[in-house]
Write a structure and sequence with these properties.
Structural class: mainly alpha
Number of helices: 12
Strand content: under 5%
Shape: globular
Radius of gyration: 20 Å
Number of strands: 0
Helix content: over 70%
Distance between the termini: 33 Å
Largest sheet: none
């Protein structure tokens, strides 16, 4: 996720990729998306918000044969999708699955993926995270002087106007990602995983994880917004 953030920020078309401050900009982005700092911040936030019993059940699943396999598939898929060619392949596979009959292998695989997503309300949680981080980003820009004078209500309106686009992007990304990641799992394994995910402990862990993500990425987005504003003002001058 740190690598994803660095790549997205450095490739933002709103920021010129030339200029005397480019090297400094890259260093600042690297500091903001520092792997160790992000890991420690996330672990602390998760630890603070996690019930011990929920932790024990989540750990037991993660250490089971199915749990280990699922985690390995999710992490390897997430890293593979950093490659544009593989990301394009995953999106194309999603479009084929959406167009396939519901009783086909592709159709059934997509249905299980959607069940996995629905088990923990992953679309709504990711949309909420996206809106929160977007607001933090604009707040950081305003604090750095780029959007000075914009009222809080104006920022909220700007963020809420993005909800449909964020929801569409999140849905496409989540379905493509899980469809790609879970290819090696058979239907019985997928059902077992979904049952764990929608269990009280599985859902509680997922919500604690998203609260921790919110803590970490709201802070990061605010810092990126401030850094972006300084970079853009520097180039303007």
């Amino acid at each position: 996720m740190a690598e994803e953030g660095r790549d997205a920020t450095l490739n933002d078309p709103a920021v010129p990729d030339t200029g005397t401050g480019r090297a400094g900009w890259e260093m600042e982005v690297a500091r903001i998306y520092d792997d160790d700092r992000m890991h420690d911040a996330f672990a602390t936030a998760l630890d603070d918000g996690l019930d011990p019993d929920v932790r024990a059940e989540a750990l037991a699943f993660a250490q089971s044969d199915l749990g280990r396999r699922v985690l390995q598939l999710e992490v390897s898929a997430r890293r593979a999708l950093l490659t544009q060619e593989i990301d394009d392949t995953a999106q194309a596979a999603l479009e084929r699955a959406r167009a396939a009959p519901g009783d086909s292998a592709q159709g059934r695989a997509l249905e299980l993926v959607r069940d996995r997503i629905a088990a923990n309300d992953l679309i709504d949680l990711n949309v909420s995270l996206g809106l929160n981080t977007s607001l933090a980003y604009y707040t950081g820009m305003a604090e750095a002087g780029w959007m000075a004078g914009m009222a809080g209500a104006d920022m909220l309106a700007l963020v809420w106007a993005q909800e449909d686009a964020i929801r569409s992007d999140v849905t496409d990304w989540a379905e493509a990602y899980f469809l790609f990641a879970y290819q090696p799992l058979n239907p019985e394994e997928m059902v077992a995983y979904i049952e764990h995910a929608r269990s009280p402990a599985g859902d509680a862990f997922n919500r604690a994880m998203f609260r921790a993500f919110d803590t970490v990425f709201v802070d990061i987005s605010r810092r990126v917004g401030a850094a972006m504003a300084r970079r853009m003002m520097q180039d303007t001058l």
